[in-house]
Structure formats: structure tokens, C-alpha cells
Amino acid sequence: MKPRLLDLPVHRDERGFVGVIEGHEALPFAVRRVYFLGDVPGGSVRGEHAHRALWQLMVAMSGAAVVELDDGQERVEFHLTGPELGLLVPPGQWRVLRDFAPGTVLTVLASSEYDEADYIRSYPEFLDWTRSA
Ligand code: TYD
Asked: How far is the C-alpha of 13 from the C-alpha of 97, rounded, in Å?
């Protein structure tokens, strides 16, 4: 499956907003972990790895960031600009997270607990892995 940008319902009124992540389209996996990135300096790049089996849903709860995903054949750039957008990331995507706006909090819902064995941290190794899969 390819990565997908999803419209998430956000209920706004004069009291602020309530954003919702629910249902099979946004979460085609059971959530086993939630983590969040913040205080990322504008020029910093995070990620630079792939996962063998992990599914994720990424949301910029506040602020904005760019997520570049590469399946070994094509590279697509996604602009996460707020709680209305969720990026569903299937396994096997080399990701680069960059261009964090000041104050951005990027939340990631993930299908399993932290497992270093699920990471591929070298791009040449990732390309070999995609070709042998
Ligand atoms: P890292 O993988 O470098 O973050 P990123 O993918 O955003 O570049 O993780 C930073 C540190 O946090 C590293 O020491 C591992 C730790 N960590 C956990 O303990 N649990 C987690 O769920 C995650 C994502 C990271």
C-alpha cells in the first residue's frame, strides 16, 4: 500500500478545536504506541530510517513539518500543516522529516512498541531490502 494523506475531522468553535482520529481508514492497525516530537530546530532533519513492519499515522497537532517518503522507487513529499491532516505511513518507507515550523508538535501513532530490530538505518541497506522483498 502507498502512503496516504487523510482528512481528519476537526471540530472548531470559539472555544478552540477538537480533532479526532478514529476508524479503520485512519487507523488500519491497532495502536500500541504514541510518541511526539517537539522543539525541533527549523534546520534539523529527523527520521532518516525505514521500518520493516511498523505502521504509523503522523499528525502535526500544532505547527507544520514536511515528511518525505521514499519506497525505493519514488520519493513523495507531504506537507503536514495541522490537525486536519493525517499521514498514513505503511511499512517500507524511507522517511525524512524536515522544515519544522517553530512550536510544531508532531504526534505519531504506531502499530508496535519501540523495537530497534524493526529499523533500517542505512539507505543502501534499505534499497537492498526493498529489492529482495
Ligand atoms: P530517533 O529514532 O533518533 O528519532 P527520529 O526518528 O525522530 O529521528 O529517536 C530518538 C531517541 O528516542 C532514541 O534514543 C530512541 C528513543 N525512542 C524511544 O525510546 N522510543 C520511541 O518510541 C522512539 C520513537 C524513540
From this structure: 31
Asked whether the predicted pLDDT for residue 38 surpasses 90, the reply is yes
Ligand 1 atom, smallest distance to 108 CA: 24
Residue 19 CB less than 6 A away from ligand 1? no
Q: Kindly report the pTM of this predicted structure.
A: 0.96
With a 6 A CB cut-off, is 47 part of the ligand 1 pocket? yes
- Active-site residue among 24, 49, 51, 79? 49
> pLDDT of 88-115, one tens digit each?
999 999 999 999 999 999 999 999 999 9
Phi-psi region of 36 (alpha: psi -120 to 50; beta: other; left: phi over 0): beta
| pLDDT tens digits along 54-76 | 999 999 999 999 999 999 999 99
Torsion angle of C-alpha atoms 28, 59, 106, 90, degrees rounded to 10: 40
Segment (H or E) for 123: helix 123-132
- Quick check: is 79 catalytic? no
Task: Answer yes or no: is the C-beta of 118 below 6 A from any ligand 1 atom.
Answer: no
